Amino acid sequence: MKQLSRYIDHTLLRPTATKEDITKLCQEAKTFNFYSVCTNSCYTKHAKEQTLNSKVKVCSVIGFPLGAMSTKAKVFETTQAIKDGADEIDMVMNLGLLKAKNFTSITREIESIKEQLKNKVLKVIIETCYLTDDEIVKACKLAIQAGADYIKTSTGFGTHGATLNHVKLMKSVVVDKAKIKASGGIKDYNTASKYIQLGVDRIGTSAGIKIVTDK
Amino acid sequence: MYLSQYIEYTLLKPTTTEREIIDLCYEAIEHNYHVICINSSFVPLAAQFLKDSNTKVCSVIGFPFGAMSTQAKVFEAKKAIEDGAQEIEMVINLGFLRSKNYVSVFKDISDVKSAIGDTTLKVVLEISELNKNEIVKACEICVDANVDYIKTSSGFSKGGATLTATKIIKKTIKDAVKIDACGDIVDLETGMKYLEAGVHRIGFDAILSKKTKKAKTISYKTTA
Fold first, then answer.
1. Which of A6, A143, A169, B91 has the largest count of CB atoms under 10 Å?
2. Which CATH class is domain A7-214?
């Protein structure tokens, strides 16, 4: 099992976050050896500059948090984020398409984003708080089919974040065909370690420092 | 006076389906609402549905956080217009505003404005997140950038329009830019107060109006 800090995407996504907040986020990620920082796409370039010559990777969210942006705009936001230095992309699935069972459009969208990434990591956020169990299962299968590297539980801005039951369900579908990132509401070591025991490979949290220092 | 000409009818929740957008369009036509406001993935469908009606299509972009890269905001806006949107609603970059990086706030808006030409541009300030000075500064930047409407709220933050903030906005911009008040406005009476305070549009959410069963009241004729 890897070091706890290496599970963490050190995250700051609130819309009022300033450039100075992002500088601090990157500094903390370097100090605490977090895997990455995760920011909105307006700060990707700055985050890259702040983490250059370090092990810390840069994640950019795309189509965030609603996932209801046009596919072409999601693809463009992705290519711009990659140009700006993003190492990983966390995109939000179009939940309206999922609810309407328009599955082909979902996989096409994910594939067209994955195509921009070549070898970089794509995480697909399914926003479990709005989904039935059947929809969670279907969302996982579609994401795997379309080439997602990670399936991520939540944006952190829905009605709630990750739950242990949802992650168990996801793991039963995903097995080893993709990795799982648990996010939203994970604020302490005990909670984080429960998700790790369930087999998640990454945790999205703004409470990374508390989590690693709690231990 | 019919209120419907002032109404902007919105449906923006992330789980919105095509069926719900079609229903929104039917309602908008029935009540003769001025414009519907939707996420950009639904613009082609809505534009097709409303093409022979009086109701316009407004696409939100960089919504609701306003924290997307400027280049991506520009692209999303241009794509939405190509797909049939007649208005664009963007969210101001709150982080840049908070840092007092006014050059970047201005550039974010003016790049979108330049890209969309004559298409109506609305900028959401998200007043529930801002202090008075930030509201004033944001308004000044919007005036400089030749924005068409300043909108109070996205409907996704902790609060919506307030009469206090609307008065601050009105005092700052006077008649240079129009105002669109939205968020928590659920009935005729409240809508009228905002019109009296000088707003030109009222944003009315499709879901909220059904919950409060007030939808029918807003297109009634008033005695004003």
1. A143
2. alpha beta
